[in-house]
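Please decode residue identities from the backbone states below.
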């Protein structure tokens, strides 16, 4: 007992010593950077030339608050104007099956390579820009000549006028952007897209401002089948799919990842419950997923028991407390786990279940389709690596349907957390304000689309 007490005392003494060292170093850096002593010296020498005026703190705070309120109101006004015009244009747009991407500049959608733009450097944007045009970015894995993309380019071109009007009314406004569920991004002012040295994997549907605008916060449990049947290529596809799924989450979401065969357990043992889907936690999940190995037999019930306990247990741990989702990645199986859903989820169906059939196999997928459809989810197939990105983000469209049906009630302006955006130089961070554009496209089997508009404020 004496030795233990002495050891604890030494540890406390050492920590206090570290704290004093840190305090002294911070004080030294502060004095060096701010020049506080020099300012005191200047004041003492010239104090007769200065007069002291008593401030009114309350009045200063009220003035600052009013200035901030006016600033945010101007940003919101620009966003409301853009969202309203986007909804109108989409409703009035006539779908064209025959629209084509012209390589010679004579078609209905002109090839952007035929427009030679001149760019001027703007210190506010810290970039070369053109104020007369918008620019479009389309993800690398999307076919630019698809009718849905060409129609999207066609009607969103009219947003240029709104972008320009917003910029004239509020010169402090920086980038304005419109992001679509199709993957099309139209932003203003136009600037050359700076692709990274490697493959350009930018997709607006994976950006924080789009994710937060396109769906409500989520509590998600990802179930990964690691039974012996998923070994080899299927297991590699599952790992890649789970990592892509994690990238669809933002800081507003909470998540846990579990592997299961005969029994289920968290892939990160210290994560006993849902954790915030921030960059650090997602990196830890990805590292753990890479270490998974396939063995044993499949038991869906063990996985679903784990997931429902994570989602439905009432604890003091922070959660999104909005959408509750289970993502099941497997190669297939015969069990429908009906007893588990009857115990936890029926008849209210408060938890959505999305199922993913991964790999090339001949298993009956009817049970997976049944599980998804009876639990307000959706069924997806991932046969190859090319299908991973598109299929792991389609669930956002399903989550957006209640917001579309709610109409104006669901249209709320949101502010993202601070992050580094692709349009902003590497030395700047931005805040983004976004608003959902809620439309229902009757052409596409009454499928409801959600599009998001946004504007940025540089820090």
């Amino acid at each position: 007992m004496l030795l233990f007490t002495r050891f604890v005392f030494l540890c406390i003494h050492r920590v206090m010593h570290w704290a004093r060292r840190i305090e002294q170093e911070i004080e030294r850096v502060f004095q060096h950077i701010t020049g506080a002593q020099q300012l005191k010296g200047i004041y003492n020498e010239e104090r007769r030339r200065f007069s002291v005026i008593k401030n009114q703190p309350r009045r200063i705070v009220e003035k600052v608050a009013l200035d901030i309120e006016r600033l945010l109101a101007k940003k919101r006004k620009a966003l409301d104007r853009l969202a309203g015009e986007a909804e109108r244009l989409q409703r009035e747009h006539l779908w064209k099956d025959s629209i084509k991407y012209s390589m010679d500049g004579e078609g209905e959608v002109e090839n952007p390579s035929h427009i030679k733009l001149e760019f001027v450097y703007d210190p506010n944007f810290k970039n070369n820009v053109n104020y007369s045009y918008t620019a479009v970015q389309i993800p690398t894995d999307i076919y630019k000549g698809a009718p849905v993309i060409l129609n999207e380019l066609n009607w969103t071109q009219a947003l240029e006028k709104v972008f320009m009007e917003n910029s004239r009314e509020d010169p402090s406004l920086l980038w304005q952007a419109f992001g679509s569920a199709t993957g099309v991004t139209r932003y203003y002012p136009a600037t050359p897209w700076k692709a990274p040295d490697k493959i350009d994997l930018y997709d607006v549907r994976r950006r924080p401002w789009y994710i937060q605008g396109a769906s409500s916060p989520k509590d998600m449990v990802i179930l990964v089948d690691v039974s012996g049947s998923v070994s080899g290529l299927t297991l590699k596809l599952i790992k890649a799919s789970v990592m892509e799924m994690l990238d669809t989450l933002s800081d507003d979401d909470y998540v846990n990842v579990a592997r299961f065969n005969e029994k289920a357990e968290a892939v990160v043992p210290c994560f006993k419950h849902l954790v915030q889907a921030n960059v650090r936690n997602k990196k830890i999940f990805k590292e753990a997923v890479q270490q998974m190995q396939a063995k044993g037999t499949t038991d869906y019930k063990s996985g679903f028991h784990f997931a429902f306990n994570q989602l439905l247990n009432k604890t003091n741990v922070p959660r999104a407390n909005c959408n509750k989702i289970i993502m099941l990645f497997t190669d297939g199986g015969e069990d429908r786990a009906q007893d588990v859903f009857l115990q936890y989820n029926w008849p209210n169906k408060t938890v959505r279940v999305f199922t993913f059939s991964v790999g090339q196999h001949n298993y009956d997928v009817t049970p997976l389709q049944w599980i998804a459809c009876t639990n307000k989810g959706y069924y997806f197939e991932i046969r190859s690596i090319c299908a991973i990105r598109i299929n792991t983000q389609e669930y956002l469209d399903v989550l957006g349907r209640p917001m579309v049906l709610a109409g104006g009630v669901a249209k709320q302006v949101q502010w993202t957390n601070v992050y580094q955006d692709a349009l902003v130089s590497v030395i700047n961070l931005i805040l983004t304000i976004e608003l959902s554009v809620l439309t229902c496209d009757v052409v596409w089997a009454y499928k409801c689309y959600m599009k998001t508009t946004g504007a940025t404020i540089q820090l």
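Observation: Residues 66-207+421-458 form one domain.
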